[in-house]
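Materials and Methods. Structural model of Plastocyanin-like protein. The 197-residue sequence of Plastocyanin-like protein from Corchorus capsularis was retrieved and submitted for structure prediction as follows.
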Amino acid sequence: MASNFSLPKLCKNALFSLLLMFMVMVVAAASFQFNVGGRERGWIKPTGNESETYNEWAARNRFHVGDSLYFKYENDSVLVVNKTSYSKCSVSNPIFKFEDGETVFQFHRYGFFYFISGERGHCKAGQRLIVRVMVHPAATPSPEPAPSPQGDGSGNEGGGWDSFWGPPPPNSTIKLTVASYFMTALGGMLVIMYLLM
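The predicted structure was written out as C-alpha cells:
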C-alpha cells in the first residue's frame, strides 16, 4: 500500500513553520509596552508625594516607533493633545480622547507626543506627560518646513492636526537597519522554500 507521506516534504514544512514562527517572534519583540506611572501607581492625579513626575519617568526611558504606552486609571481620561494645549492644560480640543480605564496608545511615528488628564485640575497638578519617540540611529530625519508666523488659521498657535502629526517621512530617506535586511532575507528564503515544495 503506497503512502502519500514524504519525509523530505515534511522536513520542508517543519522548517518553513519554524522560520515563520521565528519571524513573528522577532517582529513582536521589536516593540515594547511601557506602563505609565508604573504597575502600582498608574495614571493618577499627583499628590506631591511621588518620587518622580511623569515627565521625569519619560526622560528615563527611550521610546521608538512601534512601542506603546499603557495607561491604567479610574474615573479619569487620557487626552492626546498638541503642544499648545499641553502647555495651557486645555482639554477643549484633544486629538484623541480615551476613557476606557485601560488605554494602550501605540507610537506610529517619531517626534513628540503630548498627553494630559481630561479631569479638571489634574493637568495643572502634574498629570501630564511629554514623550519623545526617538528616530532610529540609522534613519535620516527629513527636514520639516518652518511654521507659518500666522499660525494655522484655527486660532491655535501652531496647534492644528498637521503641526502635531507633521508630514510623514518619505520612505526614500529611511535607511534600512540590519534587522530590516535580516527580515528581508528571511522572507526571501521562505518564499523560495515555499516555491520549491
